[in-house]
TrEMBL record:
The gene is map. GO terms for biological process: proteolysis. Belongs to the peptidase M24A family. Methionine aminopeptidase type 1 subfamily. Binds 2 divalent metal cations per subunit. Has a high-affinity and a low affinity metal-binding site. The true nature of the physiological cofactor is under debate. The enzyme is active with cobalt, zinc, manganese or divalent iron ions. Most likely, methionine aminopeptidases function as mononuclear Fe(2+)-metalloproteases under physiological conditions, and the catalytically relevant metal-binding site has been assigned to the histidine-containing high-affinity site. GO terms for cellular component: cytosol. One of its GO terms (molecular function) is metalloaminopeptidase activity. This is Methionine aminopeptidase. Removes the N-terminal methionine from nascent proteins. The N-terminal methionine is often cleaved when the second residue in the primary sequence is small and uncharged (Met-Ala-, Cys, Gly, Pro, Ser, Thr, or Val). Requires deformylation of the N(alpha)-formylated initiator methionine before it can be hydrolyzed.
């Protein structure tokens, strides 16, 4: 049986105990602030993601933006990770490590940021284009953003279950003949960076925990242009497609409300997906 824990006054003693947390107004307000900052940071990325730019310089800019806003990068020091964001290029599925390697014309880039602001985690990622990518890349990116929004729509329906989210995303990916990565998933979020429940991007409708008001979690589908399989490189972080096919990902943090969902990490500038104006 799924366990839920109602949280009224969250404090520093909250820890991952396997329960799905149900948050009140304080939690929603905290996530709005953290999510807004995360979205604002990604809104500034199109001007930085250019051919010839290093991913390390982008990471440095992200860290400065977070610190200037009174937040800290949740990834910095997390399980030994030493950067302020994850930047995944082309066939890198997720957890790409920023480096001195420069972007090339036509690269597609996922930037994943999580500012920790006043104790709340705003977790989100978007795709960006360095120069002019090939048509196959733009189609993959478009379909991946559609998959995210279709998953969110499934979560917004009364009586929805987590399986409905995964089933909707999987059906959309199959329609386009893309592989849905199974090794990585969405997760509960809030005062904890990663919490219950796990949000798998494949599934059977009507299965899994019922979505209840106050639940916070991410939906972050990863679609490969080829097979769905992933492998992690020797650095222990970088996940790539086994067949070296292009991969794309979008992520939002959201909360279940009495009448649907609230997306905490929407772009105020409507920079939801590339190409960005």
């Amino acid at each position: 049986m799924t366990e839920y824990q109602t949280i009224e006054d969250y404090d520093a003693d909250v820890y991952r105990d396997g329960t799905i947390k149900l948050h009140g107004p304080e939690g929603f307000e905290g996530m709005r602030r953290a999510g807004r900052l995360a979205a604002d940071i990604l809104d500034q990325m199109p001007e930085l993601v250019q051919p010839g730019v290093t991913t390390q310089s982008i990471d440095d800019a992200i860290r400065t933006m977070m610190l200037d806003a009174g937040a800290v990068p949740a990834t910095l020091g997390y399980r030994g990770y030493t950067h302020s964001s994850c930047i995944s290029v082309n066939h890198v599925i997720c957890h790409g490590i920023p480096s001195e390697k420069t972007l090339k014309d036509g690269d597609i880039v996922n930037i994943d940021v999580t500012p920790l602001l006043d104790g709340w985690h705003g977790d989100t990622s978007r795709m960006f284009f360095a120069g002019d990518p090939p048509l196959k890349a733009t189609k993959l990116v478009e379909a991946t953003h559609e998959a995210l929004m279709i998953g969110i729509e499934a979560a917004s329906k009364p009586g929805a279950h987590l399986g409905d989210v995964g089933a909707a995303i999987e059906a959309h990916a199959k329609k386009h003949r893309y592989g849905v990565v199974r090794e990585f998933c969405g997760h509960g979020v809030g005062r904890l960076f990663h919490d219950a429940p796990e949000v798998v991007h494949v599934g059977v409708a009507g299965t899994g925990p019922e979505l209840k008001p106050g639940m916070f979690f991410t939906i972050e589908p990863m679609l490969n242009a080829g097979k769905p399989w992933a492998k992690v490189l020797g650095d222990g972080w970088t996940a790539v497609s086994r067949d070296k096919s292009l991969s794309a990902q979008f992520e939002h943090s959201l909360g279940i409300t009495e009448d649907g969902v609230e997306i905490f990490t929407l772009s105020a500038k409507e920079r939801h997906k590339p190409p960005y104006s």
